[in-house]
Amino acid sequence: MRVPRGPLLRYLANYAVCAMPPDPVAIAKALADDSRVRLLLALRGGEVCVCQLIELIALAPSTVSKHLSILRSAGLIDARKDGRWMHYRLAGDDAPRPVRQALAWITESMAKDDRTVEDAKRLRAILKIDPEALCRTQRENSGCCSSAPATPVAVRWRKAGRGRSKTT
Predict the structure, then answer these.
(1) What CATH number has the domain bearing residue 47?
(2) What is the DSSP string of the chain?
(3) Interatomic CA distance for residues 6 and 56, integer angstroms
(4) What is the domain range of residue 99?
(5) 148 - beta bridge partners?
(6) Across residues 86-111, what is the average pLDDT?
(7) Tens-digit pLDDT profile for residues 16-67
């Protein structure tokens, strides 16, 4: 059986994930990673653009995106797209009770943690930077696969003459 793909299916999949009642195991798994907890705590002050979260956490954009996807699937955060910008915020007062309780517990438990305090200070500085300039800097600083240093396996393949067509 062929599974249909496309924007409508992605929309329906996101809607289904958000509309389902919260799964306590999914919430626990989402809170089991330090980076995801840091992302949650960064959203305490309100809506934050993904480029600002990437700058704060200092992980690859794809990694931050995956973490945000897990948090969103657990119902802990909401997302809003504004043009090319993706904004995230903590689930609101209309969130199911287990989600609100989990958010209250994690924010209260981690409020005085040294890393949380440092992240809050860094986030205040990051929020002062124009998002356009921040994204431009992130694009310029990210390495493309072609400019990345060769791995030992790639070097061995080149030395052995593999990976090149015989016609060239």
Answers:
(1) 1.10.10.10
(2) -PPP-SHHHHHHHHHHHHHSPPPHHHHHHHTTSHHHHHHHHHGGGS-EEHHHHHHHHTS-HHHHHHHHHHHHHTTSEEEEEETTEEEEEE--TTS-HHHHHHHHHHHHHHTT-HHHHHHHHHHHHHHTS-HHHHHHHHHHHSPPTTTSPPPHHHHHHHHTTTTS-TT-
(3) 32
(4) 7-159
(5) none
(6) 92
(7) 444 456 788 999 999 999 999 999 999 999 999 999 999 999 999 999 999 9
